[in-house]
Amino acid sequence: KAYKNNCIFHFFVIPVSFYQIIKRTVMAEVLLVRTSAHAVAFLKQEYGDISPMALAHSKGILVDAQHYGNIQESFRGFAIQLHGKLHITLNLDQDEVMQQVCLAHELGHCILHPYSADARSFTSLSLDNTSTTEYEASLFAAEYLINDNDILALCHDGYSVQQIACSLGYPVELIVLKVKLLLCKGYSELRLPFEVHGDFLGN
Fold first, then answer.
1. Three-state secondary structure string covering the chain
2. Quick one: pLDDT at residue 54?
């Protein structure tokens, strides 16, 4: 009980089971996965299956791609909003695959979180799912870059996740995110080999 201005307030502690916590966590992740998948589906229906750079141009997002130095001492990329205009800065001092992954990730921020883009630069882009915006942007990148049928065909042929990553040329963690997206789409026969390890873009 708590007393205030001669009024009595009763506080009740409602126990939350471990199952309820897990259920809420899973539901929250499913929502993030579906949001990213639906956003990509809409964009590809609207603009076709175009490159991340072409999509940025189509959406009026300015991309400043230059050599900013070694990523260990600089950054891979970031998205900012200046005077109501979205900008992506991309470091070209990384291999072409990671340039595409980074650009797609930053496009995810611009598409899904246009009003939260700020001017913070960083050396790594975390895949830690405790950071909702970073995790969602990485899901967006996985969905945009990797074709469903490519993954399904390789899984059907018995490829492991590591072999799929090697075959398609993408980081293993991005393949795992794509598998999560496929599971959400109803491909229940797929299995995750391990949980995503954050910060793969920083390596």
1. CEEECCEEECCCCCCCCHHHHHHHHHHHHHHHHHHHHHHHHHHHHHHCCCCHHHHHHHCCCEEEEECCCCCCCCCCEEEEEECCEEEEEEECCCCHHHHHHHHHHHHHHHHHCCCCCCCCCCCCCCCCCCCHHHHHHHHHHHHHHCCHHHHHHHHHCCCCHHHHHHHHCCCHHHHHHHHHHHHHCCCCCCCCCCCCCCCHHHC
2. 97
